[in-house]
């Protein structure tokens, strides 16, 4: 067995096999550069409206949804369910006098 440390033995073997000197692997020094701070991006899908609309989740009974879908089928303009619900809420608020 050799009395030479493993590291130096490996270096000598490497020089013999590849015929070159081993250099330490170091990173080249880089210039320090100023990096402008970026604004933190919000995660998820971007907001659809800029007017400050807030999304809410509402549960409706199946019977009420059937009535809504029936009325939607009668409409020619092809509205979606959420638009019709917004219109109905606005009409209800006007009927109660909450909005003029």
Characterise the protein shown here.
- By secondary structure, this protein is an all-alpha fold.
- It has a domain at about 60-100.
- The chain has helices spanning about 5-20, 60-75, 80-95.
- The longest helix has 16 residues, at about 80-95.
- It is elongated and about 90 Å long.
What labels describe this entry?
3 helices, mainly alpha, 100 residues
The arrangement of helices and strands along the chain is HHH
Q: How many H/I helices?
A: 3
Span of the ends, CA to CA? 98 Å
Name the beta content range. under 5%
The chain-level structural class is mainly alpha
- Major sheet size, sense and barrel closure: none
Round the mean pLDDT to the nearest integer and report it.
77
């Amino acid at each position: 067995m050799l009395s030479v440390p493993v590291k130096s033995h490996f270096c000598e073997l490497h020089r013999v096999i590849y015929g070159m000197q081993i250099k330490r692997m170091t990173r080249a020094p880089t210039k320090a550069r100023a990096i402008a701070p970026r604004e933190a991006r919000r995660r998820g899908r971007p907001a659809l409206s800029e007017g400050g609309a807030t999304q809410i989740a509402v549960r409706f009974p199946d019977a009420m949804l059937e009535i809504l879908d029936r009325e939607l089928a009668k409409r020619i303009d092809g509205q979606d369910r959420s638009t019709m619900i917004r219109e109905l809420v606005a009409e209800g608020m006007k009927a109660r006098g909450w909005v003029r």
